Amino acid sequence: MTDATKSPSAADSRDMADLLARAADGERITPEEALLLYTDAPFHALGEAADAHRRRRYPDNIVTYLIDRNINYTNVCVTACKFCAFYRAPKHAEGWSHDLDEVLRRCSEAVDLGATQVMLQGGHHPEYGVEYYEELFSAVKKAYPELVIHSIGPSEIDHMARVSNVDIDEAIRRIKVAGLDSIAGAGAEMLPERPRKALAPLKESGERWLEIMEQAHNQGLRSTATMMMGTGETAAERIEHLRMIRDVHDKTGGFRSFIPWTYQPENNKLKGRTQATVIEYLRLIAVARVFFNDIAHLQSSWLTTGKAAGQLSMHMGVDDLGSIMLEENVISSAGAKHRSRLSELIDLIRSADRIPAQRNTTYERLAVHWTPEDDPQDDRVRSHVSSIVDLPIVEKQAAQAEKKPVEK
Ligand code: SF4
């Protein structure tokens, strides 16, 4: 990203070394400094600074993972984001909604496979107000009190409040009482105004997304924060996204982790015109680690960037590989093809010279796999156990198997 025609002066190099040292020491850096690191820092030095930051925070060298299932209750949505391949407009022939029994059946399978969390996510259905979410969360909580409901995001809260004609505070209070434990950082995409309008013109503004998150934090709900990069935003807009999140965290302390992922280009209206490279992604990961010196955790996305990039990210400041995702349909609909068995995820962590551990939503470590003998043995635990985006492939394989002559 540096201008290769311009060699840095000795003074520039000294300034960069000083900035990297301050970042590695956990000193608070400014957005301008973060941008300079993002665009100009030598790749390995940037990774080393971020990793030094991680080592100081997690000297035991543990990298965590989670077992959860993303359960989609509907794909019907009125917001029509241009990057989204999952939604269908109301009355579209391919629109669907799952009833409560189906959601509970999926929760039951998740519990059976050792999940500790469900992420209930869906479109902005024109009829789903606060009452719908109260019923959904309370039914899941009643049937599976052991499952943490880490679900929806500010966009869904904004939508349900409008449908039910109540204010945001009331919507948050009611869904919290119904059983919502934690808010997912979904719907952040890009928070600065220009890229957000280009991607999702009907969605609430980035400021509004953060305002709702702040209200949720003030009511005692904690959350994650996300970013979708690679849709044509500038380097400065990426760093501005980080600044906007950090400003809210400074006030509330409510973000548990930051999770950037890359835009997937299939089956949506952006038609894959732009994408982030793996190097851009890893640089952003490293800058996020040193910029968010008060946000405890940094998660990388093996689902969108692949397992190799996921493994490299552990040398760029990442302390968490996120979920195995027993089910995922939203990002997968747009082309995310990476899949993993739990044993592979654990191997990735171990071969990056880190110690794998299963965590829960609040990053409490449930099981540390100090040696390979401690690894879980249930081979059923793998990503996309029953994701609908995989169904056509599964059905094709079944049809081929049927045609194949039976071996005697
Ligand atoms: S990203 Fe969410 S809000 Fe946007 S169209 Fe897709 S389902 Fe709807």
TrEMBL record:
Record-listed E.C. numbers: 1.21.98.1
UniProt: (3R)-3-methyl-D-ornithine binding residues: 301, 323
Residues involved in [4Fe-4S] cluster binding: 77, 81, 84
InterPro entries, sorted: Aldolase_TIM, CofH/MnqC-like_C, Cyclic_DHFL_synthase_mqnC, Elp3/MiaA/NifB-like_rSAM, F420, FO_synthase_su2, rSAM, rSAM_sf
Pfam family, one: Radical_SAM
Binding site for S-adenosyl-L-methionine: 83, 189
Keyword S-adenosyl-L-methionine on entry: yes
Reactions listed under catalytic activity: dehypoxanthine futalosine + S-adenosyl-L-methionine = cyclic dehypoxanthinylfutalosinate + 5'-deoxyadenosine + L-methionine + H(+)
Enzyme class, first EC level, given as a word: oxidoreductase
Family membership noted in the UniProt record: Belongs to the radical SAM superfamily. MqnC family.
HAMAP family xrefs: MqnC (MF_00992)
Name the record gives this protein: Cyclic dehypoxanthine futalosine synthase
